[in-house]
Design goal:
Blueprint (H helix, E strand, L loop, with lengths): L1 H19 L16 E8 L7 E2 L18 H6 L16 E11 L1 H12 L2 E7 L2 E6 L1 E4 L12 E5 L1 E9 L2 E9 L4 E3 L6 E13 L17 H43 L24 H27 L9 H26 L6 H14 L2
Length: 371
């Protein structure tokens, strides 16, 4: 029975690790096949952590809104993937396809205007490829000839999708809001809007395994990498300097005390300096289970970070795969939980022969509770 359970556990762990370390999506399509398209969320450009569901804005929605079953990565990232009226069939070009016609009420116009004023963008997924686009734009009247009047708020009513493919696989997806197709939503009045879209396909020589590399070549990334390396080196240097200063101060204090004791000037029974600590060195700290749980949790966190860095440096972990990094984090956290229990229990057993089980069990919830 024990062998069967061990084999089943091993199979589950291998499956989880295989899922976490999988290469990019390798789905293949024929001309005219349906490709998964999901709308996700909207939010202001200057605050990526503030997001809302896509249909919180009065966009064209299907009769029945169906939420995609969320993966671990999507749950951790706060995604909300839902179905849409867009139909982008594989390798099929379309031009100015009618999506829907909506009569926006004054409240819906105000909702769209607030989103445009705050530079809202949308994020969608096509074949697990994320892409972004803007909802509208603001025309500043100060740049006009008369220079009078309030700003003009325009809602984009047409979106152009450009998709790159290689043979029978999707490589890239882009969305461009057409500035020539806009609707004025400056005033709180009812507005009729006709939404439409176009899609154009282009064959590219890029291989599937490198289809997400473009996300790592953003214009700001080289600068960010330099800043991160400089910060890392700066942190290491400061740590060594502070450690060195602390060692010098402690050594000076110990030398002074030892010099006094060796001189015979002090009374033999008088305790000064570091000798005050001799009665506390082997004293059991208060709330021992919690203290050991913190030690075990810290050990687990250190091991988890080392595992992730090692997998990334070896190239085993594909970080640009949709969900790979988050799934790997959860899997490695599960595997390293044994390290937390062992570290906590072994440290507790140095002070007491019984009760280490409670300390080890506290690690189970303390890691999650700290966040």
């Amino acid at each position: 029975m024990g062998d069967i359970l061990a084999h089943r556990l091993q199979a589950v762990l291998l499956t989880l690790v295989g899922t976490a370390l999988a290469l990019p999506n390798d789905r293949r399509y024929n001309v005219g096949d349906e490709v998964p398209f999901y709308v996700n969320k909207v939010g202001p450009l200057n605050n990526p952590s503030e997001t809302y569901e896509y249909y919180d804005l009065p966009f064209c929605s299907p009769g029945q809104v169906i939420h995609k079953k969320e993966s671990i990565r999507e749950v951790l990232n706060g995604d909300c993937l839902t179905n849409t009226l867009y139909e982008l069939k594989f390798a099929v070009n379309k031009s100015h396809v009618f999506l829907c016609r909506k009569n926006l009420s004054s409240d819906e116009v105000a909702t769209f205007r607030g989103a445009v004023a705050n530079d809202f963008y949308f994020q969608n997924y096509y074949d697990d490829l994320p892409f972004w686009g803007f909802i509208g734009k603001v025309e500043d009247r100060n740049w006009t000839f008369d220079g009078k009047g309030p700003n003009k708020y325009l809602l984009f009513s047409h979106v152009r999708f450009d998709v790159l493919y290689n043979d029978n696989q999707v490589l890239e997806a882009h969305a461009f809001s057409d500035p020539n197709h806009t609707v004025d939503i400056t005033d709180d009045i009812e507005v009729d809007v006709e939404f439409s879209y176009s899609v154009f396909w282009k064959e590219a020589p890029t291989k599937l395994k490198s289809r997400m590399v473009r996300y790592s070549k953003a214009s700001l990334l080289p600068l960010l990498q330099k800043v991160h390396w400089f910060s890392f080196i700066n942190l290491v240097v400061i740590t060594f300097l502070l450690t060195g200063f602390l060692v010098v101060v402690l050594m000076q204090c110990l030398k002074n005390d030892l010099r006094k004791f060796s001189g015979g000037d002090e009374e033999e029974d008088k305790e000064v300096g570091w000798k005050y600590l001799h009665g506390d060195v082997f004293r059991c700290p208060p709330n021992m289970p919690l203290f050991c749980a913190i030690i075990g949790t810290g050990t687990q966190l250190l091991a988890l970070i080392c595992f992730l860095f090692t997998l990334s440096f070896l190239g085993v972990l594909y970080p640009y795969n949709h969900g790979a990094l988050s799934t790997s984090l959860v899997v490695i956290y599960t595997l390293t939980s044994a390290i937390a229990g062992f570290s906590s229990g072994s440290f507790y057993s140095k002070f007491a022969e019984t009760g280490w089980e409670r300390s080890a069990s506290w690690c189970r919830s303390y890691f999650r509770g700290s966040f």
